[in-house]
Amino acid sequence: MPVDRAGDVADAPAARLLATIHPSAVLRADNQDVAYEGLVADLKVAAEALR
Q1: Alpha helices in 1-51, H assignment, sequence order
Q2: pLDDT band (50, 70, 90) for residue 16
Q3: What is the pLDDT of residues 30-49, one digit of tens each?
Q4: N or C: which end of the chain has fewer CB within 10 A?
């Protein structure tokens, strides 16, 4: 439930969070192909959540 600075219930939708790897981590990964596939999978979940 979102709250404002005063601690009262705010008139805003609840926030939703999705953790994923930072895109630059793909460049530093030992196996870039696997890391890229994981990032793409995460972004697909995020896109679906925003629908």
Answers
A1: 23-28, 32-50
A2: confident
A3: 999 999 999 999 999 999 98
A4: C
Give 11-17 contacts, CB < 8 A, sequence gap 24+. 16/49
Give per-residue burial for 14-44: e unless 16+ CB within 10 Å, then b: eeeeeeeeeeeebeeeeeeeebeebbeeeee
pTM of the full structure = 0.67
Gap between the Cα atoms of 44 and 37, Å rounded: 11
